[in-house]
Amino acid sequence: MSRKPRNKPTHPDASPRDPESLRTRIIESYPRLSGRLQLIARFALDHPNDMALETVATIGERAQVQPSTVIRFAQSLGFSGFSQMQRIYHTMLLENVSSYSERLRHGLRMGEAPPGDAGQILKEFCTTNIASLNHLKDTLPLDHLQRAIQLLARARVTHLVAARRSFPVAAYLAYALNHAGCRAHLVNGLAGQFEEQCQLMEPRDVLVAISAHPYASETQTVAAAAARARVPIIALTDSLVSPLARLASLCLVVSEADKRGFRSLTANLCLAQTLVVALALRRTREQSSEAPAGSAAGSK
């Protein structure tokens, strides 16, 4: 009995023609791919410049798969082979010449500082964090940012969840939103009460879930509970195929710098500040536009 080929092209006659359609095809195909192909799919989404510039062998090594897997990945998306797919990544690279990975590599070429050289370490962290901020500025779609602000503005309560390294971002958002006059609830699982805190979420609310690889299980559990309760979810995560992205109503992808084994929170905190300030300004404008009408009615 002949075996059925795995990962047969879903769209053999309609390969993606541009960067956006390619990204969409990868995200849509991701759940149906084998484990190995999912590794290269994630790599392709997270490192588009490497996909444009490197050989099949180098990409396979960095994604921890065989070169043949890279070719099978291209074919699973409807391409005849890797070269055809790589041409789209060339287009993507030309559209964004000053890329995050290039800036980050430039920072890393500064070299490792000798032990105890605090000044050089400071320069390295500043350089890589600046790269993260520039990447956020250049790549975050403005319509996604506006939609996030709309979801927050309409929410009865904004619930916030993050764990371990990402927790400070959620804690800051809870603090800042409450000071901006917005009801915010930090889902922190105090005394193991994640389930009880999740029961406070309603469809009129919104959940902001923050997590990056390897993705805190607690955050995923809360996000899944919100999805079951039909609560809109804004995910701040590091990949379009992260577990949170698949549950989210809106996914904001944030790539953080990683230096000396320490991953930064700079870009996530910058985005959090942006959301709060933009939301506060929106509320101020709405209140100002309503004030004259109320004053005029009272003077009659």
Q: Could you characterize the architecture of this molecule?
A:
With about 300 residues, this protein is an alpha/beta fold. It has two domains: about 20-95, Arc Repressor Mutant, subunit A; about 140-255 and about 265-290, Rossmann fold (3-Layer(aba) Sandwich), CATH 3.40.50.10490. About 60% of the residues lie in helices and about 10% in strands. The protein is built from 14 helices and seven strands. It has helices spanning about 20-30, 35-45, 50-55, 55-65, 65-75, 80-95, 100-110, 120-140, 140-155, 165-180, 195-200, 215-230, 245, 265-300, and strands at about 160, 185, 205-210, 235, 250-255, 260, 260-265. The strands form two sheets. It has a five-stranded parallel sheet, sandwiched between helices. β4 (about 235), α13 and β5 (about 250-255) form a beta-alpha-beta unit. α8 crosses α14. The longest helix has about 35 residues, at about 265-300.
Question: Secondary structure elements and their pairing?
Answer:
Elements: H1 19-29, H2 35-46, H3 48-53, H4 56-63, H5 67-76, H6 82-95, H7 100-108, H8 118-139, H9 142-154, E1 158-161, H10 167-179, E2 184-186, H11 194-198, E3 206-210, H12 217-228, E4 233-237, H13 243-247, E5 250-253, E6 258-259, E7 262-263, H14 266-299
Parallel strand pairs: 1-2, 1-3, 3-4, 4-5
Antiparallel strand pairs: 6-7
